[in-house]
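Supplementary notes for students who missed Thursday's class. We covered one full example, reproduced here. Read the sequence, then the structure, then the short commentary at the end.
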Amino acid sequence: MKTVIHVNQHIIKSNAKKGENKPTLTVKTYKSNTYAHEVEIKGPSKVVYSPDKPLSCGAKVWIETQATVTPKTYN
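Structure (token representation):
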């Protein structure tokens, strides 16, 4: 299953403004979106920069992998 991981800049800005620590990484599959502070990719992956064709969320840089991905969050 293809997994796409990107950094959500809106959450980074919100965290800075509000003094929060919400997870800024979004791990997307066709089934779900998971938010994390850290992501472990257990196999091959590639980093994509596509300014002319961003993801639907607006991300222009992301990581793609078919490998198992383990998202982690901190409280």
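Commentary. DSSP finds one helix and seven strands in the chain. The two ends are 28 Å apart (CA to CA). If anything here is unclear, bring it to office hours.
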